[in-house]
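Justification of resources, computational component.

The compute hours requested in this renewal are based largely on the per-chain cost of generating structure records like the one below. Each record pairs the submitted sequence with a full structure-token output. That output is archived, and it is also reused by downstream analysis tasks.
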Amino acid sequence: MEEIKIGELVRSAVTSFSLRLAACASLSALGLYWYLSRGKTDNTRSLTPGSGAGLGYEALRRLVETEQLPAMFVDLDAFDHNVSTAASICRQAKKTLRLASKSIRVPDLIARCLRLHPDVFRGIMCFSVHEALCLAELLPEARDFLIGYPCVQKQDVEAAITLQRKYRASVLLMIDCVEHVQILDRLWHALDPAGSLTVCVDIDASYRPFNSLAHIGAHRSPCHNVAALAAVVSAIEASQHLRFGGLMNYEAQIAGVPDKSTSLLMDIACAVVKALSHRDVTRNRARMREYLNMVGLGVPLFNGGGTGNLRDAVCDPGLTEVTMGSGFLQSAIFDNFHDHWRRPALFFGLRVTRSCQPGIVCCQSGGFIASGQTGLDKSPRVYLPSHFAPFPHEGFGEVQTPLYVTGSSAHNIGIGDPIFFRPAKAGEIAEHFNEYVLVRGDTIAGRARTYRGLGKAFY
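The structure output for this chain reads:
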């Protein structure tokens, strides 16, 4: 009898091990397939300094000869290419495109996007309702706003009411829990008892395998499944002033995590997670849509996707629109995605002001470090000339940045010469500059004020 039990245990253990081994093999194969297939997308060249830009270093040096540095530059040819290509991708998939203003923060460039392809651009996703109010005041074409993050203050609701009343704008405020519903309904009743507010529910798109023991993705919304959505929708239906306007479901672990790193094993592991997460997100969206159709609400708006997965996101039948922001300017952090049809359009120049020894130069300013977990990927990247690098123990400094010549490269960079860099992220660096210098070909075509240059600071 004991031998039978032991035999059953052994067979059970072997079967379990075999199933796990098969599962691991399947996941590895899936990840490898995803990894290889992503590498076969259009324009798989590696982005190198100068690629996608019409000007080399000498031309840029002449262009900025009389400019006060630090200064930020936008290559309009590359910018327009990125905007038009994104619009074409969405148009072919019959999806509308919402511009993420957080990743631009320059009203003239935001307006340029909306004007280039008005048939594709549906509106703007703002990070602040006060930002939306600012854009409505400045841009007559800015009248459709999705506020990407929850707001619970009286001043925010007042700004939303002004957008509706003064500018006749469509405004969707973001919520993700019953408490948000209660707070907004109470504030709205106190400020506009006869009015109504349309809200969008933020659905958490993080990947939670093993019965949610693991959490892969951004920590955003507590609304992860149909049950949580049903509770929020019921609260909206029971409220006095709120109306259901749609869903947002941003898959940060897919759209915001680079495909390529310095490790092939890490790249394959990332591909496995992205493939599994993509399947999970697609299924969850279908369940959300099915529930809303069942209760008779439908989904007038379903927003998702981002710069890093635009081509995949537009193919999701559950979405009505996709969002993009950083890809219009193509900041450096998005170079390491397989689907990188975008051209670098944003770079800044620093002036060399000292040299402590041959092979080392020191630039004035430079410490434009991006937000998020601190790491090398959040630092700017040397653009032109490409044979310089920051010292690992110093990095980019607030008031000065020392650089050394890499390898055996010769250089003729001296005091007073410019060196050009690309920021890691596209939007937040605008908080360091009053204006962007707009470049067309080898000439300066104009200047555009940033939020900072307009005297605005929203966060």
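Residues 32 and 268 are 6 Å apart (CA to CA). The first helix runs from residue 2 to 38.
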